[in-house]
Amino acid sequence: MKIFLTIILALSICNANAQDTISNISGPHGGRIKSIQNYNIEVLGTYHRVITYLFDKDLKPISNKGINGNILFFYADNASLNIKLKPYEINGFYAEISATDYYYCVVNLSIYGKTISSKFDNLSQLAEKENKIKK
Fold this sequence. Notes:
Layout: H1 2-23, E1 32-36, E2 39-46, E3 49-56, E4 67-74, E5 80-84, E6 86-88, E7 92-96, E8 104-111, E9 114-121, H2 125-134
Antiparallel strand pairs: 1-2, 2-3, 3-7, 4-5, 4-8, 6-7, 8-9
């Protein structure tokens, strides 16, 4: 009986965590999207990598050819890190980071001479855990 209750409890916890993750998904690649002027930027984080995708206002991919950008990561104690974005797939960019406990990042893209920027909070469970350990 104890094993049965343990299994039920474990499944309930997994189901609750999966629902939290699903509620945050909004972009075509599973990331968060923000609209800036006539563009949409999608951001998603993986372990030691942040990936951004560029779309038009109708969420149609915009080629990354001829587009440059960077991401500014902001950490505790006013520390920051500026990383140049590298092309990824057709409409994406990525940045490798070793310190994933940033509070937020600002994505800057220069699109044919026009610069757009957007702030994204770090919502990853990894960042939350690392911030709790440091406190």
